[in-house]
Amino acid sequence: MHKSGDSRIGKRPVADLESLMMQQGDQFDATRCVSFSDTDASGRVHFTAILRYVEDAEHLFFASLGIAVIGGNHGWPRVHIDCDYRAPLTFGDEVQIRLVVQVVGKSSVKYTFAVKKFDQLCAEGSMVIVRVDG
């Protein structure tokens, strides 16, 4: 997967979300190709692969900000996901994933995502993640 910006994995856990370097309206773009293993018997990408693409983009976004996805005693589980599938993707397609931060709360982040092949919208939705310690 390729992304905008720095490719280092974030190592710095944060004490609270107020110290995160992200805010409403921030965007992050990543690009990847559909792997053969992401497709089902019909030759189309399996619906769960889209969510993995979004999660991979999220991890790269966090890394670009220097935020550790996991570490020490914290993590970022998903507490809400919705996704609408608009057009199929197939093996070899190059896709763009865009994340847009909608809300940064005390312990949660909500963002929307769009997955496109060229200018064609293939999937869109939103995800809420919560930072948990312990």
Key terms:
134 residues, mainly beta, Thiol Ester Dehydrase, Chain A, 6-stranded antiparallel beta sheet, 1 helix
Characterization of this structure:
The protein is mainly β and 134 residues long. It has one domain (2-14, 23-133): Roll (Thiol Ester Dehydrase, Chain A). 13% of the residues lie in helices and 40% in strands. Strand 5 and strand 6 form a beta hairpin. The longest helix has 18 residues, at 47-64. It starts with a strand and ends with a strand.
Radius of gyration: 15 Å
**Derived structural class:** mainly beta
- Shape annotation: elongated
Under the CATH scheme, the architecture is Roll
The fraction of residues assigned to DSSP E strands is 35-45%
| Uncertain stretches of 5 or more adjacent residues | 1-15
Task: Write the H/E string, N to C.
Answer: EEHEEEEEE
Number of helices: 1
Biggest beta sheet summary: 6 strands, antiparallel
CATH superfamily: Hotdog Thioesterase
Lateral strand order in the biggest sheet: 1-2-5-6-7-4
